[in-house]
Amino acid sequence: MEAIEWGGYAKTIILNPADYDGLEVHGVRDCADEFGITDGTACEVDDDGNPEFYSVYAHLREGGLECIGDFATGVDAVAYGALIAGEHSWPLDIHAKGICTDCGESIEGGSQCAGCRSAEGVRS
Length: 124
Fold this sequence. Notes:
By secondary structure, this protein is of the alpha+beta class. The chain has 3 helices and 6 strands, in the order E-H-E-E-E-E-H-E-H.
């Protein structure tokens, strides 16, 4: 597997924000070995299994996704996604199972970590 360069690159992908209507975070795995690719990566979404890393995708209004960042952790992916979503007033949808939908922390079940559930209870 070729080394993945971690980080976001939204500014090089989202040239016309009007073409997009939201962001998504997905768990991802590199399956280059499965396809015999030796000089690059071949990634596929792995929201249900055991993702190797997390990617943030910009959702095109006309359909489809474009990757705007790859991150080693769900926390980093959610933080970057929230930053870019906030800049454009877009929703951020978290599809990867096993990470908190608010902060990206790893969780065993449900959709929120204990810290975010507690904070939500305080806000109520």
